[in-house]
Design a protein that fits this description.
308 residues; Udp-n-acetylmuramoylalanyl-d-glutamate--2,6- Diaminopimelate Ligase, Chain: A, domain 1; 6-stranded mixed β-sheet; 11 helices; 32% helix; 23% strand
Length: 308
């Protein structure tokens, strides 16, 4: 991935170097910003009630009374990202993907998950997950993707059950001007961080499109909603062979066309917006916290071979 401008500051924290392991009550007594205060701001932006039932979001490690002066946002809680957070001096790492989505019976340091947990705790770095609640909320992953593509009249593909009309999984909207599928795919390629997988397209390169459905991350469970939205093209990640093939077979006049992108790349776009939003809330509440977006490319693929 190309280097990114990843400084999103809610204030200056120069000289501050407290860690998440601060003794309970010490940070609060000093009037400092605590992890608990940050959690309240996060809940305001991305309520846990918006998370899907199968998801695991919220605080994974950290004392709510510990002081927070620096926060790092990232897509994945990989060991490389954790080390980046530690090197930055962040007392809090906020990731989109959960570290412990599936149950484990051990966090021994002989396992990858265990090494991550040990490194977080031993370094005094708290970990917070904002996953499908970050997808569904206003200004969430798919909202940011839709905005980057210039979509108008945007609405959720699947409205939230217990949320606002604007909340839910996926988004659908209209381009200001009609584009060919080839030109739109080029626009997609241009806004995403560079990854090995690039952008895969299914459909007539010269086909005209206006209505666009998007879902950051894996979205091949939403084809019924995409068809119901009358979208000309569906942009998402991790499209598997059979769902994609069946979607092509069920297409009407070739639509919806399909654009398959990197899972990491589609969700990375949200990080600067999320960091900025949290910084604004904390700043409005009088908290002095420095926020940065990770520069680590955690896409799992390194290179690809293609015909020609």
């Amino acid at each position: 991935m190309e280097p990114v401008n990843n400084d999103v500051s809610a204030g200056s924290a120069e000289g501050a170097n407290a860690v998440a392991g601060t003794a309970p009550g010490a940070a609060e007594a000093s009037g400092a910003t605590t992890l608990g205060m940050v959690l309240l701001a996060v809940e305001e932006l991305w309520p846990e009630s918006l998370a899907e039932q199968w998801d695991e979001v919220g605080l994974v490690a950290g004392h709510t009374t510990a002081e927070v002066t620096r926060i790092l946002f990232a897509v994945d809680p990989t060991l490389e990202v954790i080390e980046e957070a530690i090197d930055f001096g962040a007392e809090l790492l906020i990731t989109h993907h959960p570290l412990l989505l599936k149950g484990v019976t051990s966090v021994a340091s002989t396992t990858a998950k265990g090494r991550a947990v040990h490194r977080l705790i031993e370094s005094g770095t708290a970990l917070l997950t904002v996953h499908t609640n970050g997808d569904s909320a206003v200004g969430g992953v798919s909202d940011v993707l839709a905005d980057a593509l210039g979509l108008q009249n945007v609405a959720p593909l699947t409205p939230a059950t217990n949320g606002l009309p604007e909340e839910g999984i996926g988004r659908v909207g209209d381009l200001k001007d009609v584009l060919t599928l080839g030109d739109f795919a080029a626009r997609v390629f241009g806004i995403l961080p560079a990854v090995a997988g690039g952008v895969r397209v299914s459909g007539d390169r010269d086909g005209l499109i206006r209505r666009v459905a998007v879902c950051g991350g894996a979205g091949d469970s939403l084809f019924a909603e995409v068809r119901a939205s009358n979208a000309d093209v569906y942009l998402t990640a991790d499209l598997r062979h059979h769902p994609a093939s069946e979607a092509r077979e069920a297409a009407v006049d070739g639509r919806p066309y399909l654009i398959d992108v990197s899972h990491f790349a589609s969700e990375w776009l949200w990080l600067p917006a999320a960091a900025g939003a949290l910084g604004n809330v904390l700043n409005d509440q009088g908290h002095d916290v420095e926020i940065r977006v990770s520069g680590t490319n955690s896409d799992p693929w390194d290179f690809i071979l293609t015909p020609g």
